[in-house]
Amino acid sequence: MKRVMVVALVAALVGCSTTTSGLVVHSSSAEDVQINNGALGRDLSLVSVNKGRLNGRLQGRVNLESNSSSDLYLQYRFSFFDGEGVLQESAHDGWHSLNLAGGERRQVSSLSLNSKAEDFRFEIRRIISD
To answer: So which residues are the signal peptide here (predicted)?
Structure first.
């Protein structure tokens, strides 16, 4: 019950935020998910957030699970940072589309372009159709 109240409070406090991301998480504090869209926070779970090295470069991996019974149409992006917090280039800059069927689990990943990256931020949002 306490966790539900905390999530509801966080959702209410960031409801007026100017960010376009529904959920945001940093690899350095993976247990702290910033919820900017309460509905998306209920429909989507970030099951795990992991980082590792591949050929000397940082790789970010996020496991997602749809809690919805219908399809979710989403966009996500990874941003990589060096030890001083300076934004680094990634192999997949910008927003990428992702469709999750109801109840589906999927892993998404990205790779930094250089070996300086030590941390990453993962953002995911709903695609809003006109």
So the answer is: 1-22
pTM above 0.70, yes or no: yes
Residue 9's nearest CA partner among 34, 31, 43 is 34
* pLDDT tens, position by position, 56-105: 999 999 999 999 999 999 999 999 999 999 999 877 778 999 999 999 99
The residue extents of the domains of the chain are 2-126
State the architecture of 2-126 in CATH terms.
Sandwich (2.60)
* Strand 72-81, strand 119-126: pairing: antiparallel
Q: From edge to edge, which strands make up the β-sheet containing 57-66?
A: 44-54, 57-66, 105-111
CB contact at 8 A, 81 and 116: no
Residue written as token pair 């007026």: 16
Question: Under 8 Å CB-to-CB from 1, ≥6 apart: which residues?
Answer: none
Query: How many residues make up the chain in this entry?
Result: 130
Q: How far apart are CA 28 and CA 53, in angstroms?
A: 15
What is the pLDDT at residue 130? 57
| Joined tokens for residue 93 | 């800059």
